[in-house]
Amino acid sequence: MSQNYVADDIKVLEGLEAVRKRPGMYIGSTSKAGLNHLVFEVVDNSIDEAMAGYCTVVHVVIEPDNVVMVSDNGRGIPIDIHKEKGVPAVEVVMTTLHAGGKFEGKGYKVSGGLHGVGVSVVNALSDWLTVEVKRDGKCYLQRYQKGIPDAPIGTTSPYTGSDRGTIVRFKPDATIFDDIDFSMDVIDHRLRELAFLNKGVRIVFEDRRGDEPYTQTYQFDGGIKSYVAHINESKEALFTPPIYLFNERDLYEVEIAIQYVNDYYDEQVVSFANNIRTKEGGTHVAGFRTALTRVMNNFARKYELIKDKSEVLTGNDLREGLSVVISVKLRNPQFEGQTKTKLGNSEVKGIVDSMVDEGLSLFVEANPKIARAIINKALIAQRVREATRKAQELARRKTSLESTTLPGKLADCSDRDPANCEVFLVEGDSAGGSAKQGRDRNFQAILPLRGKVLNVEKARLDKILANEEIRNLITAIGPEAISGLRETTTFELDSADDAANAESNLKEVLAKLRYHKIVIMTDADVDGAHIRTLLLTFFFRHAREIIEAGALYIAQPPLYLVKKGSSKRYIYNDKALEEYLQEVGRDANLGIQRYKGLGEMNPDQLWETTMDPAKRTLLQVTLDDAEAADEIFTILMGNKVDPRKAFIEKYAKTVRWIDV
Ligand code: 0RA
């Protein structure tokens, strides 16, 4: 035992105590996110071993009592006696802060982990933890309680296996965390992501807590190339397979997979640094964008795809339909931004830029057809942007004439303060008639919309603007509230405070809306559902900020009127009807009227059931999970039939969205 042992021992205890006192400092929080983070911290070590080329399989099991087991077939954490500390290296790793996995100079290029805190933090926050190391034909075992070893490391016998690896099992300390129920979905999603990011590694996930165990095996030999393909699964790719760029320089590794899709105008950038999702982007994304724009312009100019010397493709032109996964690995990642998910290392921009420039230039020369397809798409985007700008200028000039250009069909309200006002988007003229009579004209406006509005998923903004119903809708609610219709759209404000920006954007949107509540009021039948989906798609695609501002609602008209003697009752869905019938008994003298459309209700009834703020229920449309909503819209409205069918079959019974 070294002379330093006692001093070191005290340091270890102090370290563990610090972690237990302020867990949030090490794992972010003691809520669900922090709890799940424990698993990722342990998994990261195995992934590092895989990245170093020594491990092919990682198993993650959630056992019935929320004990987590992570095993790998790597070299096994070293058990030789640590020179300074006089205990096996594995004990040092398990008990010393910032010693996890990162044995400098032993071939470890990068180390993951959101906070990169190491497995000792998991140990400190566990009721108990065991580590087993299989190497040199032996199996070593050590157990800890709240981070402190029960006893010196021992060997378990008999062990005859020739396999190697590390097995960590731990039970989180219930006195530290809000609760210790790991989230299957979050862990499942992250493990799949890790499998995409670390190609070839097999990750087996099992959740044994339910009656039926849940098992998944992830292994993607295409790495992030498979990831992009997965993102675009239900879309139509402009070309396959995705463009794949890989390069390493000094201690930087850059991996990028690019694909464009048709009939989809948003861009999807999914970026990572050291396997950590950088939601706010950063220097790696900036370097990519610059290089993409430059390479495509060079190609377009060289082959005279852009005529005029002064003509250029802008970054915006090249964004439409772009899906890209960017993964960089580096020694000292700096995370910045609101949520610390923005890569800040300034040298990375130039490195990624020059690597993409080099790789993509070679690619476009070797694959001119693909390059031309991308450039054509960007040229169309450019023309559309120009056409939209003109259309919008026209619209703006019209709106400056104030209410005279409001659509003739709009029955406006008298109050001029948008904060008090609501507009009901109503399907058809007959329902529109009832709504007009039933409303409170002081603050409620009615805009009847005719027929199937338009399949907005497929249409571009310029075509959408040519549709009269949509133009009416936009003019009625206030064209200036829709950023796609404003002159300048600012992308990626570089250094500014993002939260403050979001806040001021909302204020700006509300300031430009003519009504702070926009209510979709459609029939409770299939056609009504269709129109509602079309409208939601329109708002989602082209006026997302209105949803974000919380200004979009869905009215809830009743499905039935049940009369019993002189009393009457409105019922809003089949389940409620069933319950009511159970309650009153089926043989009672009941009159049940089913409303087929809003038009069947007299104006008083419509007011009473659906429009009166004192009695109605409005569903506020949220963008809680824009990514999920986006997927659903694409599947439901897109070109491909198979994913739509599969989706509907999968969710027919559960999902509320289809029926929203
Ligand atoms: C440092 C050196 C060696 C292996 C590891 C760390 C290692 C750590 C973890 C954590 C989870 N699983 C792991 N597997 C390996 C290599 C030692 C040697 O030379 O054999």
Could you please describe the fold and organization of this structure?
With about 650 residues, the chain is α+β, with helices and mostly antiparallel strands. The protein has 3 domains: about 200 residues, Heat Shock Protein 90, CATH 3.30.565.10; about 160 residues, Ribosomal Protein S5, domain 2; about 180 residues, Rossmann fold (3-Layer(aba) Sandwich). Helices cover about 40% and strands about 20% of the residues. The chain contains 20 helices and 25 strands. Strands 1, 2, 3, 4, 5, 6, 7, 8 and 9 form a 9-stranded mixed β-sheet that branches. Strands 10, 11, 12, 13, 14 and 15 form a 6-stranded mixed β-sheet that branches. A hairpin with a 2-residue loop joins β22 and β23. α8 runs parallel beside α9, α9 crosses α10 and α11 crosses α18. The longest helix has about 30 residues. The protein is globular, with a radius of gyration of 30 Å. The termini are far apart. The C terminus is likely disordered. The site of 3-[3-(1H-pyrrolo[2,3-b]pyridin-5-yl)phenyl]propanoic acid has 13 residues, from α3.
